[in-house]
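Key idea: predict the complex, not the pieces.
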Amino acid sequence: MSMALPPSDPDTPAQITAAAPAPRRRWANGLLVSGLLRDKTALVAAVVLALLLLAAAFPAFFAPYQVFDLRQISLMNAFVPPVWIDGGSWTFPLGTDDQGRDILSAIIYGLRVSLTVGLGGVALAVVIGVTIGLIAGFTGGIVDAALMRVADVQLTFPAILIAVMIDGVSRAILGDTARAEAAVVVLIIAVGLSGWVEYARAVRGAAMVERRRDYVAAARLSGVGSAGIMVRHILPNVLTAVMVIGTIHLGVAILIEATLSFVGLGIPPTQPSLGTLIRVGNSYLLSGEWWIAIMPGIALLILVLAINLLGDFLRDALNPRLR
Amino acid sequence: MIWFMLRRIASALLVMLAVTAIAFVMFNYLGDPVVAILGQDASVAQRRAVEAQLGLDQPLIVRFWAYLMQVLQGEFGISYRLGRPVVEVLIERLPATVELAATGMAIALVIGIPAGIFAAIRRGSASTRLLMGASLFGISVPTFFVGIVLIWVFNVTLSMLPSFGRGQTVAIGWWTTGFLTQSGLVALVLPAITIAVFQIAMIMRLVRAEMLEVLRSDFILFARARGLSEWRIFFRHAFANTLIPVITVISLQIGSLIAFAVITESVFQWPGLGLLFLQSVGAADVPMMSAYLIVIAALFVSINLIVDLLYFIIDPRLRARVAG
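Result:
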């Protein structure tokens, strides 16, 4: 393999199978950064995403108002349009909603909820997927066949339907009130359980190749247990693939959460995510107050677009299956 | 060959059995069917009577067998929410979803395939870069947001198209169609575009990727060397060879179309299966949820099965490999 980046086609949706694991490259990080500096689109996406992550991490610093502090909102300010429309002002740059809440602030707090669920769900999917993939690939035989059968069954269903189903089950178990309180956790579980298969397949492929290598035999001879070999020797080889899948999955995860919240099965309006904000705003669309729904929608679009652009870049830059 | 087909069918049946088992567990352990029928204040004797009537006093495996038999006869119980037989409601809602999904897919194919071919042939040109940017946009934009923006522009601002419902429908036997009335056709426009956006982007990227892959191969180089015209190479040689993978993935895409139908139907209050499913989940209507699970699984599994078998019939190399 050459030292240079693969002459990859920026838009070819190559599959991430990780069948041939990438060699350990100490220079990978440096290459990534210089590649990012050369690719303008990816650079812009990275900067935008970094800003959004910062705003979500420190909402109190970025948001002009504390939208959940009842003393700071007044019905007198309801339905103020964005600043570039007649009647708007810089007091509320993106306008206000039906209760006089600043939409920019609501979006920043909503971003926090959306990203919490997205990142949490991806993290859960990674843990489940990598564990199952390592076990299946390393053990082989009946265990492997059984686990991959489960993965196949799950793959026949779109992730969003599985997430909706898990939400329905949680509703039947917990009841409406308890579920509403645990909404963030329920959604993280729904996103995590509906998205682990991709990771498991990639990791399994790599583990099956690695376990036949000499160094694994050497490690076994020197008394390292199966778990040790998996974590210390095989895991580092699949991390690149997991990172690429994870970035692409994050976009999907945020969309799943937003969709569930929009149809009323996700985060309740008391602690709104971007999807919830759009759902709430949707009821004012027909009466002309379009910004209440459209502004959070644009924020969501920018977030997912930035993640997908970055995911495309990472996939092409790190794709272990070089052409 | 028959051995391969039988194995494939057996594994499809196994998947269905697993899904039915999940539905059975949901049906039995989520919510208490006895409470659903009698209410909270029933006496122990009444409960016993109903349990015996429903067969809940039987061992688990007997009950699962009974459930399986019922499902095979299309017997999914009574909806908690609507108080009507689940099958009846499902059949009533089916045409709306099928017509929406079919129209959306047709739009996606008509736009997506030519766009994909174009993007592969005119690789690197400005218009291709624009197309690819648009397709990334199409993949990133949430379906429900497409619906909202379309409603805002074409209904609220321009008052051109309706934003909810199916319009007037005509009954043909048990099937109801919106294709035959003007209001039905007009009502279909926005939802069909909404459901098509993601699919257009997806199909376009797929066709382009497959096409580029084929264009790299030796026989295209050879065709060029023979001095064939560019158009002949692109369509007779390249596109023809992308058809099998493209058809496969597009048929698998029908599955995701069902998922997108759920969202689109919710935005436009389209009276189909998807909206029904969301309402059932919202009300924890367990019989409806398990029925939907089984019906959708049956649909997906049969599509997968048909695609696999078609593949096998179309591609002689596969047959030879299994036989040899």
